[in-house]
Amino acid sequence: MKRILLKAVLLSLFVGLNTACEKDYLDINTDPNNPSEADINLTLPAGQAQVAFIVGGQLNILGGILSQYWSIPRGGNQFRTWDQYNITSSTLDGQGGQFANFYAGALQDFQYVINQGSQQNEWRMVGISKIMKAYGFGVLTDLYGDIPFSEALDADKTIIPKYDAQKDIYAGLQALLDEAKTDIAKRQGRFPGTSDMLYQAGNEAGMDRWIRLANTLKLKFYLRMSQVDPTAARTGVQALYAASGTAFMRTGESLQLVNGTVTNSENPFWQANFRSPNNLTASTTIGNLMQPNNDPRIPVFFLDADLRTPEMEYVFTPNGTTSTNTAVLSSYPGKYFIGQRFANGAINGTAATSGVTTSDDNAAKARPVVFLAYEESLLLRAEAIARGWAGTTADDPAKLYNEAITASMTRFGVQPGDYLTKPGVDYTKQTDKIKAIITQKYLALYGLNGVEAWVEQRRTGFPAPTLPVVNLTGNKFMKRLPYVDSELQRNPSIATTGIAPGDVLTPVWWDVD
C-alpha cells in the first residue's frame, strides 16, 4: 500500500500545468511536463497512507509488546530485544525509520497541503491536513516527549529546528485543531472525496465527521494532562463541552484506513507477520486480565495453543522470557489479525484442525488500520464525566462504558452475553471508575493501536504491567523511546532537552505515575 501511494505522489509530479503565463512560454528553465508543485488532492492521501503504515505496522507491534499484549514465543527472535527493553537510538532509525518517515513523509505532506491549500482557498483539505498534522505530532510527542514542532517542516527557515517542550506542544495541538475547525467551517474549496482515504468526505456531512473527530482529539489531548495538570485539563474539557456539547465521534465514524488483499495493500500488521511469522505470542498480562471474566473476545484475540484439540487451550508467556524458558506451544495472535500466518508445531497455514482458512487470511489482510476507534471515543467521554469535568449531564458514564464494550465486541464479531454484569466488569460495582474505564480501553485497543495502549498505560498505570523477566533497564519500566541517531547527529538543538542519548527511563511531561 505504501509503495503504491508513494508512486501516486511521484506520478503527480508529471501532471501538466493547466495554465501558463505568456511570458513564460519560451522559458527554457521551465519544464511544462514536470511542474514543481503537486496537486494537493494527491498529496493528502499519500500522507494519510503513510501514517497508517507507521502506526498500524511497526509502532503497533512495538506498542503491543511494551503494553504487554504480546510477548515472544519459543524460537521467535525478531522482536525479543524489544520485549527485553533493549531498544536503542538505532532501533527505529535509518531508512524506513518511523521518526524520520513521520517528519519527512507524512507530516511534510500535510504541511504541503496546508501551505498550498491556503493559497488556493482549499480550506476543506487544509482543515483535514491540520487535523492529521495534530494527530501525527501527538503520536510523536507521546513517544519521545520534547520534539521539533513550532520550527519543524520549514527547511527554508531552518534545518535545525528547536525542540519544543511537550507542554507547549500540547497547547499547539489544541490550537491546530481549533484552526482546522475554523478552516472547515469556511465551506470553501473542493470536497476531497476519495482523496480522503479515511472519511472520503464528498459533502458537508463528510466534513462534519472531521469536525467531530477534531473535538474527540481535543478531548483526548486534554485528558492526557489529567495527572500532570488536572486543573488545566478540567478547564479545557469544560470549555470544549461548552462550545461543542456532545459533538464527538458517532457510531461508524472510527478514524481508520481500509486495506486490501492485493500485494502491498494489505494491513501492515499482517504484512509484518507475513514476512516474519512466529514472532509474537500472547502475554500473561492481558491473558490474566481477560480469563477471570471469561471475556468473549479471548478466542478472537488468541489462537488455541496446539491448534489441534476441540477444546480451546490458551498458553500465555511472561514478557522478557528467554526462548529456552518459553513453552514449546503458546497462543499466537488470533486469525482476525494474522489469518493463516502462523507457525505452531507442525501446522503452518490452513489446516482443518486449526479452524483457519484462506478466507480468514484475506479478511486479516483487508482489516483496517485504526487511528482512533469509536469505542475509544466513548471511553474518553466516560472518563471526562467520571472525573466530573464534563460540562453536561446528558451522558451517563456507565452507559458510555457499556456502549464502548459492546462496540468493541461488535468489531470483533462476538456478543457481550453476561460480560457487562460480571463483578469484575460491571461499572456500577467498580470502586475505581477510572481504572475500569482505562482497563476496557486497553482491551478494546488490542491489536488495533498498540502505541495508544502503551501511552494510556503510562499515563494512568492501568492495567499494571509486569517487569519483563529479562530486561536491560535495571528492573525499571521503559517510559519513553530514545531519540534516534539521525537526530542526535544532525540536530544540535536536541541537547536542550536534557535527555541523554539512549535514555528510556525519564518520563515524558504528562507521565507522573
How is the secondary structure organized here?
Layout: H1 2-12, H2 40-56, H3 58-66, E1 70-71, H4 80-83, H5 98-119, H6 123-144, E2 147-148, E3 163-164, H7 166-185, H8 204-223, H9 230-244, E4 255-257, H10 268-275, E5 281-282, H11 284-290, H12 298-301, H13 335-338, E6 343-344, E7 347-348, H14 358-366, E8 369-372, H15 374-386, H16 397-411, H17 433-444, H18 450-460, H19 485-490
Label the structural class: mainly alpha
Q: Give the H and E element order.
A: HHHEHHHEEHHHEHEHHHEEHEHHHHH
Supply the number of helical segments: 19
End-to-end C-alpha gap = 39 Å
User: What is the mean pLDDT?
Assistant: 90
**CATH class annotation of the domain at 40-69 and 80-257 and 369-465 and 479-497:** Mainly Alpha
Helix content: 40-55%
Q: State the total count of DSSP E strands.
A: 8
Q: Which strands sit side by side, in order, in the main sheet?
A: 1-5
Q: What is the overall silhouette? A: globular
Main sheet overview: 2 strands, antiparallel
CATH architectural group of the domain at 40-69 and 80-257 and 369-465 and 479-497: Alpha Horseshoe
In percent, how much strand structure appears in the residues? Answer: under 5%
* The CATH topology of the domain at 40-69 and 80-257 and 369-465 and 479-497: Serine Threonine Protein Phosphatase 5, Tetratricopeptide repeat
Show unreliable segments.
1-31, 345-349
Calculate Rg over CA atoms: 23 Å
Write up this protein:
The chain has 513 residues and is mainly alpha-helical. The chain has a domain at 40-69 and 80-257 and 369-465 and 479-497: Serine Threonine Protein Phosphatase 5, Tetratricopeptide repeat. It contains 19 helices and eight strands. The strands form four sheets. Strands 1-5 form a two-stranded antiparallel sheet. Strands 2-3 form a two-stranded antiparallel sheet. A two-stranded antiparallel sheet has the order 4-8. Strand 6 and strand 7 form a beta hairpin. Helix 2 runs parallel beside helix 3, helix 6 (123-144) runs antiparallel to helix 7 and helix 7 runs antiparallel to helix 8. It is globular, with a radius of gyration of 23 Å. Residues 1-31 and 345-349 have low confidence and may be disordered. Residues 1-20 form the signal peptide. InterPro entries: SusD-like_2, TPR-like_helical_dom_sf. Keywords: Lipoprotein, Signal. It comes from Larkinella punicea. It holds the Pfam family SusD-like_2.
